[in-house]
Amino acid sequence: MKKQFLFFILCLFTFTALASDENKKEVDALVNEAKDFQASVNLIQQLDCAMKARDLATKYEYDEGKAKAQFWIADALLYIGLFKESFRSIESLQATKYYHKDAQMQGETHGMKGKCYMYLGLTHQAIQEFQLQLAAAKKLEDEKQKKLSVFAYGNLSTIFNRTDKLDSLMKYNQLQLETLKGLNEKENALLFIGVYDDMGSFYTKKLDFPKAAYYLKESLKLVEKYKVPVYYNTMTYLGNLEQEKENYKEGLVFFEKSLANKKAVGNREAIRSSYRFLADYYAYYKLGDAKAQEYEFAFSRLNDSLEKENRQVMDMVLARILNSKEKEAAKKVSQSSRISMIVLVLFILSSVFFTWRVRQNRKIIVQKEEALQETEVINRELVEQIGENKFNNLIDLAKSNNPEFLTLFTELYPQFIQELKTYDPNLRSTELEFCAMAFLNFSTKNISEYTYVTVRAVQVRKNRLRKKFDIPSDADFNTWMRELGEKSVR
User: Fold this and answer.
1) CA pair distance 10, 16, nearest whole angstrom
2) Number of CB atoms found within 10 A of residue 129's CB
3) How far is Cα 99 from Cα 116, in angstroms, rounded to an integer?
4) 3-state secondary structure string, the chain?
5) What is the pTM for the complete model shown?
6) How far does CA 238 lie from the centroid of its chain?
């Protein structure tokens, strides 16, 4: 009899263990699906799979599955642009036991959190998170440590590039290169390509063309050697290099190849950016009005389509978040209801039971209204944040001599640009950019530094523009531009 009882207990534990393994496999499969959707930039499907995985992991009390699901939820929300919701998912992730014992997860989470801060313009907090990502990498084994370190160095390079701190940028670019040496080239081809692209872009900005060409050619060799399908960044940087060398037609060849690759991989956001750039490029360098108009039309059509899709995606995501909150509330209410029903059956009259049910339903309605109000507040805060960031982005673009500077300036101050063109409709983009910097009250030294020319060259250009706009010699150039801007507003 004892043997039979022990056998029964053993079978029971075996069945429980098998059921637990099946539950974990179900969660892991959904997590892997979310990861695959992230690779193909299908954010809605990524979010759906990750949310299902999180709900099942919570139900099965599977801590590792819950942590990984929360990671992919936060990742999807980050790239959709819902930063506050992404932060909440990161906080839930950091509350799991798995997070505290897994250095890889810690490092990747710090990197994601740093990107949230970076996109919100909180530079100091972003740098702190990227430094924590680097510290987490040091806890890992050799190859994993190096890969995560490269990502951390890359994030730090990005933030210092955005803040125009070239010495720090160079430092972390070099650290990326040194760390890469210990990794297998074939298995980590994308990492190598990304670092070489960063180095090529850096030296292009420094006008060190031989070094820029060297790193970008190294990147191109890896693309061809390992048949890497996504290489439009490399083509863009090669185009930038030829543009800086004033080989405008040669640069155009690379920009066109970049666009072709974006179309091949289906990155519509990147395609839109190329259309905008090529329309301006053809017009600015007078390489063909017909092509400029063709790309301008293509940009407008795709831009309208993407704007509409982005609004729909945002609505869909917010609906899913709200639905998830309602399910959590309903689950809590359901648990409470079951307990209350037992208590009511035993101790309370049926009339009290129905009264209680009415109150619970009211609570659910209030919770739904609060969730909706919270979402509306988040949306308003995000809109305000975007508005505040545009001017900061404009200054960053000017400081990095980015060709997108004039595009954003024209968006923010269209009347000023129109007023300038009343003096001379044929003003070149370089002249408009110079006047825009003066309008923003950049000093001669600042303009010299940001455009990589001498102070003397800036002064010569100011004198030419004084003659063109008939600016009195005793009038301050920057003040005259500001007053022209105020006049255009009036």
Assistant:
1) 10
2) 23
3) 19
4) CHHHHHHHHHHHHHHHHHHHHHHHHHHHHHHHHHHHHHHCCCHHHHHHHHHHHHHHHHHHCCHHHHHHHHHHHHHHHHHHCCHHHHHHHHHHHHCCHHHHHCHHHHHHHHHHHHHHHHHCCCHHHHHHHHHHHHHHHCCCCHHHHHHHHHHHHHHHHHHHHHCCCHHHHHHHHHHHHHHHCCCCCCCCHHHHHHHHHHHHHHHHHCCCHHHHHHHHHHHHHHHHHCCCCCCHHHHHHHHHHHHHCCCHHHHHHHHHHHHHHHHHHCCHHHHHHHHHHHHHHHHHCCCCHHHHHHHHHHHHHHHHHHHHHHHHHHHHHHHHHHHHHHHHHHHHHHHHHHHHHHHHHHHCCHHHHHHHHHHHHHHHHHHHHHHHHHHHHHHHHHHHHHHHHHHHHHHHHHHCCCCHHHHHHHHHCHHHHHHHHHHCCCCCHHHHHHHHHHHCCCCHHHHHHHHCCCHHHHHHHHHHHHHHHCCCCCCCHHHHHHHHHHHHHC
5) 0.56
6) 23
Integer angstrom CA distances of residue 467 from 419, 423, 451: 17, 11, 22
| Residue 158, amino acid | T
State the helix-helix crossing angle for 43-60 and 289-347, rounded to 10 degrees.
Answer: 20
| Rg for the chain, CA atoms, rounded | 29
67 and 30 Cβ atoms separated by less than 8 Å: no
Q: Rounded to 10 degrees, what is the CA torsion of 189, 236, 81, 131? A: 50
pLDDT means per 10 residues in the chain (490 residues)? 56 57 88 83 82 89 91 86 83 90 90 88 88 88 82 86 81 84 83 88 90 93 90 93 91 92 83 90 89 89 76 64 61 60 70 68 65 50 54 89 89 90 88 92 92 91 90 90 76
Distance (Å, whole) CA 186 – CA 225: 9
Give whole-number Cα distances, 322 to 138, 318, 327, 375, 380, in Å.
39, 6, 9, 8, 16
Q: Which of 451, 437, 441, 444 lies closest to 406, judged by CA?
A: 437
